[in-house]
């Protein structure tokens, strides 16, 4: 139970930093759309859609490999040195290639007149990648506070430089301070968004200088080869995983929606805005992964490791099921984050996207089996299969159902991915998950939402099920609290032991 309390505390810290970072980044969206025309803002989205794919190549699974091979304390220094040397040289190589072929790459990404954008994202990737092992070291050494401070500081610096370049510099120039032109070109505003990102990434890396430079610089080729055999399949896992996470908006919908360009753009905008309402579960999953990955590897050396993994899974499913209901049943309130009513027509896809993220989070928990047994190739096979399934389902369903087809395909793909990972995991590294209880928790959440939807849709708000009405909110609150109470009663002894161990000890 002590280990679980430690994981819970770390997840809260990582979650806090993640939420703050996301909220701060979210502030840039209305800022950009206020200053920039759609034609100017388009390239920004193209570049930031490309970066995650390239980041998977730049890092080639070394973060997870570092956790895996650092469990042997005798090799920990060698793993740190070898991983650091490897990622430094590969980062220099990849960055050189991007810079050397920037004109060609700019043509590939449909921005042939702006090869400088390739230069910008090459440097963003450069500094972000150099920070991967130092950040992983903080997580391995159980220093989530420093991790959180550096992450949030980097976001704050990014916002400050955005404001400086896009608002303060034009204001200074307009008021006769022509010395600004020494470093500012008013006709290249888009570039300064990326420059601000470069400066913030460099700033975050500098804050990691102790973790980066205070290592024993050594390179063990045999150890490096073992790490590569483990980590290279994770490149495919990360790369193919992006198909489900970003390709629906970047490729599937633009190519498979059967309407004219203007209507397709409108529908993609509606879908993308509603996709963001699933952010609550996404934030928790990301925070959980930050704390759980090193935790899982550390626990692997204990005799009761499998029981710990099973217990963590149970509490994880309980939390994401509660979050599912909290977002799905209070959509009439959450919709206010989408400022324009035109976006509200897509609210009906949100529960499907929430369920998809639930399945994705469970899948991340299940992946521990192929990471611990060094069968990362199996993870690659699973992810490639579901990526191909995503292509097939989106090709089939989007022309029929529009963006609902994409949301449904996302949910089905993550469900299939979760089931396959569980089945294979039980074959190669069986963990005693309480499958019946886990399924019951999730099914009960879906049933509670179905009851809410049917009553609200056909009795309380038949005209508009997403309007803010007191009867609907009261029904949602009663059902939500009932669900939470049922879970608490089922797990009451374990939850009290987890969160109030002193109280339980006094009773005994």
From TrEMBL:
The keyword Chaperone is annotated on this UniProt entry: no
Keywords: Cell membrane, Membrane, Transmembrane, Transmembrane helix
Bilayer disposition of the protein: Multi-pass membrane protein
Gene Ontology CC annotation, any one: plasma membrane
Listed InterPro entries: Poly_Biosynth_Transport, Polysacc_synth
Compartmental location: Cell membrane
Matches recorded under Pfam families: Polysacc_synt
Residue ranges of the TM segments: 12-33, 45-66, 78-97, 117-136, 148-173, 189-209, 230-247, 267-291, 312-334, 346-366, 378-397, 403-425, 437-455, 467-488
Protein's name in the database: O-antigen/teichoic acid export membrane protein
Species this chain originates from: Thermoflavifilum aggregans
